[in-house]
Amino acid sequence: MNGRDLPCEPCSVGPPGDPDGAPILRLVGVDKVMDGKKVLDGVDLDIPRNRITAIIGLSGAGKSVMLKHMIGLLKPDRGQVLLDGVNICDLSRKELYETRRRFGMLFQSGALFDSLDVFENVAFPLREKTKMGESQIRERVRTLLRKVGLEGAGKKFPDELSGGMVRRVALARAMVMDPEIILFDEPTTGLDPIIRNSVLNLICRTFQDHKFTMVMISHDIPDIFHWCHHVVVVHDGKVVEAGPPEDVRGSVNPFVRQLVEGDIHGPVQLI
Amino acid sequence: MRFRLAEAMGERALGGARGLGRTGLFLAAAVRNAVIPPYRGRDILKQIHFIGVRSLFVIVLTAAFTGMVLSLQGYYSLRKFGSEGLLGAAVALSLIRELGPVLTALMVTGRAGSALVAEIGIMRIGEQIDSLETMGIDPVRFLVAPRMVAALVSIPLLTAIFDVVGIYGGYLVGVLLLGLDAGQYFGHMKGSVELADVINGVWKSLAFSLLIVWVCSFKGFFTERGAEGVSRATTSAVVISSVLVLVGDYVLTSVLL
């Protein structure tokens, strides 16, 4: 299945760095040491507004850590994380919680609450963070479940769902507060190709309907190039390449070449 | 060589200090969130049911047999001095001042404390706690504060039930089996147990409630490394809570006496 055939097209805002389309998120000189290992090493990264950005790299390269910095789950040892020019590392806990209303996040495992059914999981942020009435909540959740193709699954519990269904519920929950930015931590890892494409298709349709800024960690190389507008390649805690998919595909960086081609010979020798 | 040893020792000391600081900050956050409104009434009731109501059977059973064995042992010891009439007072004072709060705390640690660590630990490794954070929901307020309030309500009540059931367990053995006069059993008890003894027991059970929720939720909250991590956190939380209950009992007894 060719991703180009799917209804994912770049949106109409200007390119990253453009005065009208200034990056919504910026990581500036971010360093992070965890368990004595430098996981992020002077990361400079721009996330363009209203675009789908894919972050790719080897396992353990620092991609998830980077994502957690973007939403303030981790604080950098050095450097800044700028959301519309405001360093979120300087915010108080209360301000940070307020800022997070602009985000939705989909975790690799889905991170659904085991004790709540699908409906309650999706309704959870609305019940906790808004003063919406129960009938409005019901309506909103039903609309979202319909959108992700799970209209009849509201009463099911997370342990009764397949991997693809869990990700779709998680996507519905990530969208329920109408965020500006949605972060995806490996949304398709562990799924079979058909379910994987359906999840990616759903992400694309969601993007086209709402024009969220989306940041997605992915191992689906080279397929992911069809599903995003901007690609960031991470290696050893550093950004080694960033730009439109076609530029990254054509990169002369030996690591990027090896990653894109999936070659076992190259700068990274695993065996 | 000597330099490396000093460095390693320094690192351990710093790690220990950091851990203590983190534990203290966690307790402060839990207490602050438990005290400051809005309160999560429904969650508190749910936890009172889990910690209190569902521990009732094990508490009643433990209390009955504790009272019975206390009575049996006490009777034979007191009879040597011709003071078996004081059995009721001895059983009641032992239960109200020491055994009630301590054994209740130990039983709740084993039943509800271990479940608390496992539940929060699984939420941690399943990224559910991170998920709460990303929604702008304070996980300490959401997960720990209701459990803390529920424990502070449930455990003193369970302790009171333990004391009463234990006293009647003692009655069963002392009066019905060993033939002590029922009037003597309760009469001396009334004369010996003072309000201060009851208050002493209440303070202890409140302190133990705080301690159990603090240790168990902290261990669950900072669980690492999958299912094995949850199992390790559960074991260590139960052991640490139990030891701290016994140490705390000695400290509180020496302060409150």
Task: Identify the notable features of this structure and list them briefly.
heterodimer; A: 271 residues; alpha/beta; Rossmann fold; 6-stranded mixed β-sheet; 4-stranded antiparallel β-sheet; 31% helix; globular; B: 257 residues; mainly alpha; 0% strand; elongated
Commentary on this structure:
The complex is a heterodimer of chains A (271) and B (257). Chain A has 8 helices and 10 strands. Chain A has 271 residues and is of the alpha/beta class. Chain A has a domain at 3-10 and 21-111 and 180-261: 3-Layer(aba) Sandwich (Rossmann fold), CATH 3.40.50. In chain A, the strands form 2 sheets. A 6-stranded mixed β-sheet of chain A has the order 6-7-8-3-9-10. The longest helix of chain A is centred in the C-terminal third of the chain and has 18 residues, at 193-210. In chain A, 44% of the residues are buried. Residues 1-7 and 9-20 of chain A have low confidence and may be disordered. Chain B has one domain. Chain B is 87% helix and 0% strand. Chain B has 9 helices and no strands. Chain B has helices at residues 2-35, 41-51, 56-80, 87-125, 128-134, 139-177, 182-192, 195-221, 226-256. In chain B, helix 1 packs across helix 6 (139-177). The longest helix of chain B is centred in the middle third of the chain and has 39 residues, at 87-125. The model of chain B has no long low-confidence stretch (mean pLDDT 92). Classes of the chains: A alpha/beta (271), B mainly alpha (257). Chain A binds chain B through residues 68, 71, 73, 93, 97-101, 103-105, 107-109, 111-114, 124-125, 128-129, 177, 183, and chain B through 122-123, 126-128, 130-131, 133-138.
